[in-house]
């Protein structure tokens, strides 16, 4: 007899990462997904409007869905927005995350939380899981606080530090789409030469989260195999999509003042995840797959 499919709850299913997790699980799980500001409807998923900061509503939904596992992708993830909306962002990035972890701990089910490489200050890369956090931005501070609170409440949770992610999703764009639009229209695209990340595609991010949900208890880095500056990423993007790089110009972080401070190098050492079977593609390879798709 075949094993009946289990039920997965994806928070933020209408977001970029949530949509990719849904795509990776729709054939093998019974999927429930929450959204708040971007309503979505999928033929093979159960979607519901839910304010994750309303604990009573969250608890009721949890009792009705009775998930076998939870992947928490919902967040206010724009550092500049968090910097200017500290209370609102902390409600979703910290308090709702802790409440979800508590519900999963009480039920004894797997829980994967999406954190960020921005919990680091960017001066001691490449970062491993055991390295001390030292965030520069309020967003990074909130994610670091959530990490510690989740692991205190539920040590078996998988706390997944995510890098810069790129790709295409019909429900929410990544930074890739406005970059491509500027290149296609010949507009100037100024990209940092002094900000380094270990980027991955959305589809690889979803695979990494599912692996962590199954195999990780505690912290795990889900970075890609390459350390790239924003400028280097832009050149690969132009090459993959057959666009001229002439309008891409190098600049420094200091040239573009923003509300949230930006660390210079938060590239991650993801050896632990690689050893578990995590195998994200190279940036050019993944960009070419997007261009062909």
Shape designation = globular
Indicate the proportion of strand residues.
Answer: 15-25%
Mean pLDDT: 95
The order of strands across the largest sheet is: 3-2-1-4-5-6-11
**H/E element string?**
EHEEHEHHEHEEHEEEHEEHEHH
Percent helix, as a range, is 25-40%
Q: How does the helix and strand content classify structurally?
A: alpha/beta
**Tally of DSSP helical segments:** 10
Give the end-to-end Cα distance, rounded to a whole number of Å.
Answer: 37 Å
Using only C-alpha atoms, the radius of gyration works out to 19 Å
Uncertain spans: none
Overall number of strands: 13
Described by strand count, sense and barrel closure, the largest sheet is: 7 strands, parallel
Give the SSE map:
Blueprint: E1 6-11, H1 16-25, E2 29-35, E3 46-49, H2 55-65, E4 69-72, H3 79-84, H4 86-107, E5 111-116, H5 138-153, E6 158-162, E7 165-166, H6 176-184, E8 189-192, E9 196-197, E10 200-201, H7 202-215, E11 218-221, E12 228-229, H8 230-240, E13 248-251, H9 271-276, H10 283-292
Parallel strand pairs: 1-2, 1-4, 2-3, 4-5, 5-6, 6-11, 7-10, 8-13
Antiparallel strand pairs: 9-12
Helix pairs in contact: 1-7, 2-4, 4-5, 8-10
What does this structure look like?
Helix 2 packs parallel to helix 4 (86-107), helix 4 (86-107) runs parallel beside helix 5 (138-153) and helix 8 runs parallel beside helix 10 (283-292). By secondary structure, this protein is an alpha/beta fold. 47% of the residues are buried. The radius of gyration is 19 Å and the shape is globular. The chain contains ten helices and 13 strands. Helix content is 39%, strand content 18%. Helix 1 (16-25) links the parallel strand 1 and strand 2 (29-35).
């Amino acid at each position: 007899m075949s094993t009946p499919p289990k039920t997965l709850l994806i928070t933020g299913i209408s977001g970029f990462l949530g949509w990719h997790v849904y795509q990776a699980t729709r054939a093998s799980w019974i999927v429930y997904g929450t959204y708040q500001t971007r309503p979505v409807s999928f033929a093979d998923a159960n979607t519901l409007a839910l304010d994750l900061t309303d604990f009573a509503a969250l608890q009721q939904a949890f009792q009705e869905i009775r998930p076998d596992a939870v992947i928490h992708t919902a967040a206010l993830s724009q550092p500049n927005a968090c910097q200017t909306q500290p209370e609102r962002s902390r409600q979703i990035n910290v308090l709702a995350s802790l409440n979800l972890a508590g519900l999963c701990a009480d039920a004894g089910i797997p829980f994967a939380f999406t954190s960020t490489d921005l919990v680091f200050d960017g001066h001691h890369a490449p970062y491993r899981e055991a390295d001390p956090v030292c965030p520069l931005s309020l967003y990074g501070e909130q994610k670091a606080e959530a990490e510690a609170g989740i692991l205190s409440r539920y040590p078996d949770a998988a706390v997944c530090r995510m890098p810069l992610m790129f790709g295409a999703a019909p429900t929410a764009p990544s930074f890739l789409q406005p970059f491509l639009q500027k290149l296609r229209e010949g507009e100037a695209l100024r990209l940092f030469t002094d900000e380094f990340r270990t980027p991955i595609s959305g589809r690889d991010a979803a695979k990494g989260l599912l692996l962590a949900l199954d195999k990780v208890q505690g912290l795990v880095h889900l970075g890609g195999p390459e350390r790239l500056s924003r400028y280097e990423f832009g050149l690969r993007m132009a090459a993959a999509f057959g666009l001229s790089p002439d309008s891409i110009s190098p600049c420094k972080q200091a040239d573009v003042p923003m509300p949230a401070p930006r660390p210079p190098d938060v590239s991650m050492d993801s050896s632990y995840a690689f050893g578990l079977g995590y195998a994200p593609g190279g940036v050019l390879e993944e960009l070419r797959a997007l261009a062909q798709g």
